[in-house]
Design the sequence.
């Protein structure tokens, strides 16, 4: 017999609180307090369940029975149990702590919190408390072959574009033209960021796309140089190096499955770029990594 006990939930039993609502107004009567308002969004709550979401939840329950077996089971259970999670990617047999694939018995959950903003600085990360709650949630109800469930944030890999451009005669200043090119570049690298959506794991692009899009701009006469510079971790001793891609056939993709490509705040857009990327092109807040060993000494 395959059956479970269920309870009927009356309509309107769950309450969906609007943004800015206040649960406790008892302190509003204190002398000197004029009003109280909620300045941060509510957490752990969920909106009223409609017919569509109810049918979806029931059909998913029939599939996983509250036990995580497949990658999809882990993802759907996480989204159902934690409304503050906007997107999750399950990576079986992958360890982010040791940067290893085929790590048997390790299940990694890449967690992206809900919430949408625009701009290159938008790189959503979950709190350590939420990640711990998710790991504890899966401490039971999983296969005996799973040794550990690791909830982690995605890695954001910054991409620098070096672009040499000859401009046509135009009434606009060079600063305005470079800003327009920068906007196009950022949209190619991370379209989700410019549209205010959540990060897309596994998204990649190639130099041909970038070259064609910049060439289409009305004020661009010729592209003299185009390359992509990215920071690459060579091994597990925290040493890094810059790698530059200059062939139009080169495809730039995340180095690991739990990484997301993002643009830097400022690209190197000049009229003449005829030398390799070097220290004179770098800045403290963008490219330098100050590493410390186990003794805490740089």
Sequence:
């Amino acid at each position: 017999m395959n059956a479970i006990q269920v309870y009927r939930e009356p309509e309107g039993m769950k309450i969906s609180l609007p943004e800015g609502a206040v649960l406790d107004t008892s302190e509003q009567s204190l002398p000197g307090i004029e009003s109280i308002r909620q300045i941060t969004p509510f957490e752990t709550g969920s909106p009223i369940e409609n017919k569509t979401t109810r049918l979806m939840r029931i059909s998913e329950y029939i599939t996983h029975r509250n036990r995580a077996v497949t990658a999809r089971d882990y993802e759907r259970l996480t989204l159902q149990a934690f409304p503050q999670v906007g997107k999750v990617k399950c990576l079986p047999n992958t360890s982010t702590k040791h940067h290893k694939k085929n790590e048997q018995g390790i299940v990694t959950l890449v967690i992206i919190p809900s919430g949408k903003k625009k701009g290159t600085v938008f790189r959503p990360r979950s709190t350590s408390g939420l990640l711990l709650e998710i790991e504890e949630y899966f401490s039971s109800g999983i296969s005996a072959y799973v040794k550990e469930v690791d909830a982690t944030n995605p890695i954001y890999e910054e991409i620098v574009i070096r672009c040499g451009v000859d401009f046509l005669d135009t009434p606009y200043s060079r600063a305005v033209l470079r800003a327009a090119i920068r906007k196009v570049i950022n949209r190619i690298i991370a379209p989700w960021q410019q549209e205010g959506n959540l990060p897309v794991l596994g998204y990649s692009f190639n130099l041909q796309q970038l070259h064609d899009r910049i060439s289409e701009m009305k004020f661009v006469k010729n592209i003299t140089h185009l390359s992509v510079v990215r920071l690459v971790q060579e091994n597990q001793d925290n040493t890094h190096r810059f790698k530059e891609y200059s062939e139009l056939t080169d495809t730039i993709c995340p180095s690991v499955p739990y990484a997301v490509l993002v643009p830097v705040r400022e690209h190197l857009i000049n009229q003449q770029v005829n030398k390799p990327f070097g220290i004179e092109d770098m800045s403290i807040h963008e490219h330098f990594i100050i590493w410390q060993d186990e003794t805490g000494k740089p």
